[in-house]
Model the fold of this input.
Amino acid sequence: MNDIIQLRELYKLIDSEIIKLYQWNDIDLKHSFYELDHLPEKDRVRFTIHPTAKKEILKRLLLLNLEQSKSDTLDKNIVKKRSKSAPKASNINLFPED
Done:
C-alpha cells in the first residue's frame, strides 16, 4: 500500500512540473479520487486531477495547438512564396561560354 501512495505522490509531482513548464501556475490541480463518467459504471473512481482543472488544461492545449497550426501554415506559405520567386538552378549559368 505504501508503494501506491508513493506512486500517487510521483504523479502529483510530475503533473506539477508539467504545469510549471507551461507556466500555468494559476491552475490548481487538486489531486484526489474522482468519478470519471467515461469509464465503466462499476469502475469509475480514479486518482487524478480535478475535472475542472482537466477541462482548463485541455482548453489551453487546444489553443496552443491552434496557434502552432497557424504558425506552421504561415511558415509554409512563406517558404512557398520564396521558392516561387527564387530562380531555378537550371537557369543559372555559373560558367558562361564566351
Remarks:
- The beta strands are 32-35, 45-48.
